[in-house]
Design goal:
With 208 residues, the protein is an alpha+beta fold. It contains 5 helices and 6 strands. α4 packs antiparallel against α5.
Amino acid sequence: MAKDKMNENPVPEEELDETAGQGAAEETAAAPETEEAPETAETAGDPEVPGPKAKGFFGKTKKESQKDKGQLLAEAADKYLRLAAEYDNYRKRTAKEKENAWSEAKAQTVAAFLPVYDNLERALKQETADEAYKKGVEMTMKGLQDALTTLGVEVIPALGETFDPNRHNAVMHCDDPESGESTIVEVFQQGFICGDKVIRFSMVKVAN
């Protein structure tokens, strides 16, 4: 009976055409239009046009990376040379300071023993009948002089020498026709020197 009803109420062909057209239009509207990507030299594979440059050091080109590396090496070399120069200056400065400290300490130590030297020198100038006593003083003086020599301490030449204000301290002047100009004729206290450092100036009398 269904077939009979369908045959009894057939759909007109015009309505079929309109519904079919509407369905096609809806499908066309629903489907998004796709744009074709423009063909470029890179996508076309043109061998004459180079592609993007190769990236290297931190996203830079190889040439830029090499330049940056060279600059870093130059800066590192400069820092190394500066550090080496500073260390060399520091080494020389500390060596000089150490030498000066040693010389100063030695000079102060020797200066503390100079009064003993002066007393022994006065004792040797005194007349005595006790030969054993005299011999003992002489040996003591000889031992002190040897110790000073070992330390590099020397007596400043004075008697008969020309006066030198860098080594001698003139406490008296006199006129002596037999002596030359600025000649030391008497020594009151012996002076000592260690290298270029004067530990004690010689106290002298200068003629003319």
